[in-house]
């Protein structure tokens, strides 16, 4: 079946099968957060992006083996189930270095801009984007047999960058980082997996960058 990325809390996950990686997207919690389970096809090693909420749902999705959980940023709705998931699976925890202090569960591996996260035979490159929070990160999987895949947390959505709560300096920072570290480096075919809601592509969003800059959010 064709992957669409439209999931609802209480509904079925959506699964995307790539040549080397399987991506499972599930919606959880009162804020309709997206959690993404990534599984290396060669080794079955798994990594979870954002143990956001509904630990039983996440644990059912994950199964008995989980290598690591990466938290995209410090906001509680993105790590509300982290403690329980880690307690059950023994997974290592990772987060942006600057945001790690705002996450109640200790971070085993603080991540920097340019860090590489490895599980099985899969590599994810970390980009640090400042504005939604000081230490938010996005994760890039550059599929060797396809287009890039970008997991953006709350930094980039269909229709705009993440919330900066009317702070012009924070918006300027996030817009600049998203432009320079994402749009300027990656092709239109890049698939975007956000922390809430439906997916998009950089090609769908790129024409609207001047509008986002003008409106300031």
Give the secondary structure arrangement, pairings included.
Layout: E1 14-17, E2 21-28, E3 33-40, E4 46-49, H1 55-62, E5 68-71, H2 82-89, E6 92-96, E7 109-111, E8 116-119, E9 122-128, E10 137-142, E11 148-153, E12 156-157, E13 160-161, H3 168-183, E14 191-194, E15 200-201, H4 202-205, H5 209-215
Parallel strand pairs: 4-5, 5-6, 6-7, 11-14
Antiparallel strand pairs: 1-2, 2-3, 3-4, 8-9, 9-10, 10-11, 12-13, 14-15
Q: What strand line-up does the widest sheet have?
A: 1-2-3-4-5-6-7
Task: Name the average pLDDT.
Answer: 98
Percent of residues in helical segments?
A: 10-25%
Major β-sheet profile: 7 strands, mixed
Our count of helices gives 5
Report how far apart the termini are.
Answer: 36 Å
Measured on Cα atoms, how large is the radius of gyration?
Answer: 16 Å
Structural class call reads alpha/beta
Runs with pLDDT <50, length 5+? none
Number of extended strands = 15
Shape: globular
């Amino acid at each position: 079946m064709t992957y669409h990325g439209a999931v609802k809390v209480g509904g079925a996950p959506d699964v995307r099968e790539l040549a080397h990686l399987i991506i499972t997207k599930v919606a959880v919690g009162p804020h309709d957060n997206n959690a993404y389970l990534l599984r290396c096809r060669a080794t079955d090693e798994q990594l979870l992006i954002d143990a956001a909420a509904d630990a039983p749902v996440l644990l059912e999705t994950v199964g008995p083996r989980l290598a690591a959980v990466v938290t995209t940023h410090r906001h509680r709705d993105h790590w509300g189930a982290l403690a329980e998931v880690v307690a059950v699976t023994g997974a290592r925890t990772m987060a942006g270095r600057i945001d790690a202090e705002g996450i109640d569960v200790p971070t085993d591996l603080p991540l920097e801009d340019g860090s590489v996260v490895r599980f099985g035979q899969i590599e994810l490159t970390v980009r640090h984007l400042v504005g939604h929070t000081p230490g938010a990160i996005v994760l890039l999987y550059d599929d060797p047999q396809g287009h890039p895949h970008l997991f953006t947390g709350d930094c980039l959505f269909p229709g705009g960058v993440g919330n900066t709560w009317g702070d012009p300096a924070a918006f300027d920072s996030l817009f600049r980082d998203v432009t320079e570290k994402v749009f300027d480096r990656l092709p239109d075919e890049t698939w975007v997996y956000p922390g809430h809601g439906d997916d998009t592509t950089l090609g769908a969003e790129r024409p609207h960058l001047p509008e986002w800059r003008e409106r300031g959010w």
